Each structure stands twice: as C-alpha cells, then as structure tokens.
Amino acid sequence: MSTVSIPDFNQTIPIDSVGVEERVARLNKRSIKTESKLQGLKLALSMIDHTTLEGSDSEGKVIQLCKKARLPYAPMPDLPTVAAVCVYPNMVATAKKALEGTDVNVASVATAFPSGMAQLHIKLDDTRYAVAEGADEIDMVISRGEFLKGNYSFIFDEIAAVKEACGNAHLKVILESGELETYENVRKASDIAMYAGADFIKTSTGKIQPAATQPVTLVMLEAIRDFYRETGIKVGMKPAGGIRKAKEALQYLVLVKETLGADWLNKDLFRFGASSLTNDLLMQIIKQETGIYQSNIYFSND
Asked: Is the pTM for the entire model greater than 0.90?
C-alpha cells in the first residue's frame, strides 16, 4: 500500500440517502427468470461463508457444518460448495481438518469479536493464533467507539497492524454498520479500511440490528468502485447478517453487477455472511431444476 496516496479521512463525503434508497428500490424491481435465475442461485450458493459463532459451538457442530459446506445437498452432488466456513479461532484446526482436500476456505473471526473491546496486542495475538491454526481468512471488527469519537488514525493503524499479523491470510474488515449511525460514516469507515489494507469490507457481525441492508451495501459498493478507480486495487464485499431468502441474495447480486460490474461476481470478491440463506437457496435451486418445492425439513439446520 506504500504507493497509494492516503486521503484526509477528516473530510466527509456527503451521501444522498434518498438517492441511495431510491436506486436500491429501482434495482429490486429487476426480474430474473429461468436459466439466469438458476445460474444466480448457484452463484449465490458458491459465495456463502457458512458460519457458526455461538458460545455453544462444539467440535461436532463445526464438523457437521463443514460436511454441509463440502456437499450442500447430497442428491445434487454437482452443486457448488460454499466459499468458506467461518468459526472462532479455537475451532479453526477442527474446520481445517474437516475441509481437507476441498477448495472451501477456513475463515475465523478475531480481534475480540464481536465488540472489538480489547487492547491491540490481544487482538494481534488472537489474529496470529487463528492464522497459525490454519485460517485462510480473518474477519476483524473495527473499534466503533474510537471511530465515533473521530479517532480515524487509530482505526487505520489498528487495521494495518492486523493486516500485517494476517501474513498470507486475507483480511475482511467488519464495520458493524448498524452502530455507525449514518451513511457518511459507513462510507468513511469503508475508505479507512481499504486504504489500511483490507482485502474485503463487511457490513456487520450479525450480532446486532440492523445488520446488512441493501442501502448500506450500496454505499460500500460505491466506496469499493471509487477506491478501484483511484488505486487499481480490487477489494471484496461481504454483507452479513439477516439475509435469509434467495430472492434477497439475487437482489444483492444485481446491486454488485450494476455498481461494480461482472468482475466482482465471484467468491473471491463477493461473499454472503448468512448461513441460514443456504437452505432457501437449495429449495429454490431444486424448484428450478425439478419444478417441485422441497420441504425445509429435508435440510439440516446448520
């Protein structure tokens, strides 16, 4: 990042909130049918970060999650795998072993997820531990309290330090947009994260409401577009939390296509943090393939 000119983060880029919400509403009217719909559903499935982040997580639960990541629906073995399985650092080794021989990545939350309320050395140790256990990706949370105080250099430096601690692992930076209060703050946090070295920017932890919304995602996508135009660097996007229906997933894909273009329509540059989305995508894929809706009782709840 040394060749990239760092902007003045004290300056605020104004966001036309009405315009953002009207554009989302307009794009949501797009109709995707037949073969294009089936392709979109399968593409969305391949972009999911299958996730379990609960205090009750066990090795057995993680292994079961990984089995479904490897083979989302056994009667259709040709379906794509999901992109990654996301777990706490202490479950990374279990997931890594369970996914051996596949191209499904292991992602791990770190940096005192979900609050981010810890000293930097603890966050860096958390990150290094997850990477040493085999994590391909790290999902970090920013310090929202420091951001809201206007301490932007703190946020930048913290992200840059975690990026260095990641080594070869990719870094996904979670803004927790529901706590940032305004679209302008979402845009500013997005810019800080990207200039500090984020490989992905992510809306939410999924632990508070509101989590991912399409207007917030559009603001972040536009930040990615402008960053790419300025630097030539492609940064990925991950809306997370509250995305449960296949119809919503297709709407998000339209937002990406219309804002960033087809280059971003792959799992390397776009993800869904939404495990509960998997079953609805499977139900819709089966409907498109067979003409019959499959009951959700035939799918595991993981």
From this structure: yes
